Amino acid sequence: MNSKDGSVKVVVTAIVVNFFVTLAKSVGWFFSPNPSMLAEAIHSFADTANQSLVYLGITISKKAATREFPTGYGQARYLWNLISASGIFFIGFGVTVYHGVTALINPHHDEPVSYGLGIGILIFAFIVEGYALIIAYKEVSLSKGSKPLIIFLRESDDPTSVGVLLEDAIAVLGVLLALIGMAMSYTFHTHIPDAVASILIGVSLGFLAVVIAYTNGRLLINKSVGIGDEKEIREFILKLDSVNDITVFKTEILAPDQVKLSIEIDFNSQF
Q1: Rounded distance, CA 9 to CA 115, Å?
Q2: What local confidence, expressed as pLDDT, does residue 147 receive?
Q3: pLDDT tens across 166-224, in order?
């Protein structure tokens, strides 16, 4: 399986899992209107919408080159990832934190709260989102090889799988925060832990949005390949008998597995 096929598998798995988790959390919030449950429902909805946009970008990026787009549509993947990051920031971070702060300042004590149902749904979400996290982790581990995750994220020409891995990791973290918040609110009979958990979930989504925007945005502004790859290309060219020196060397990532190389060569006069 190549990296592109792996990205599709990871994204489709995440879409299916998050769609059903969104439904479950929405039902849970309807019967158990806890701030952290609403935060988690918004979280999963944002993840589902985000990954749907990512899948759209992958589909568009596979279109063949045309006269109007001679280098193909590969960068559409980065563009739609960037758009999805904006959605996560404004919907996931903005709405969730606003609701959490509102619940913290002005709690609705008259609302019936069923903590048992909410906790049961969150346990279900933890299991299925944990499964999606494992799938994403396996794919990223296969793609990055021996590289540390931070280096791979910095140098990779396809941050899609890593983005989904981070989303799934934060989804699992969000479920744990919601569980802790609901359990503490139930135990101490106060709304504060639940509201704080909602705010923390929103903040984690804001962090995720910034990371996705950064990793994809830089690939839209003519980013070069990694130093190691550039060194390998240089050494290969300089080994050619007809090449004396390379005077200009520039690389530009056009799409996953597609690089534009611009060079000026000083040829050996004997050839």
Answers
A1: 35
A2: 82
A3: 989 999 999 999 999 888 888 888 888 988 999 999 999 999 999 999 999 999 888 89
Q: Minimum mean pLDDT among 118-122, 127-131, 170-174: which range?
A: 118-122
More confident residue, 34 or 79: 79
- Measured in residues, the chain has a length of 271
The DSSP code sequence of the chain is --HHHHHHHHHHHHHHHHHHHHHHHHHHHHHS--HHHHHHHHHHHHHHHHHHHHHHHHHHHTSPP-SSSTT-STTHHHHHHHHHHHHIIIIIIIIHHHHHHHHHHS--TTS---HHHHHHHHHHHHHHHHHHHHHHHHHHHHHHTTS-HHHHHHH-S-THHHHHHHHHHHHHHHHHHHHHHHHHHHHHT-SHHHHHHHHHHHHHHHHHHHHHHHHHHGGGS-PPPPHHHHHHHHHHHHTSTTEEEEEEEEEEEEETTEEEEEEEEEE-TT-
Angle at 62 between CA 130 and CA 150, to 5 degrees: 45
The maximal CA–CA distance of the chain, rounded, in angstroms, is 90
For the whole model, what pTM was predicted? 0.82
Distances (CA, A) of 111 to 34, 41, 71, 172: 9, 18, 57, 27
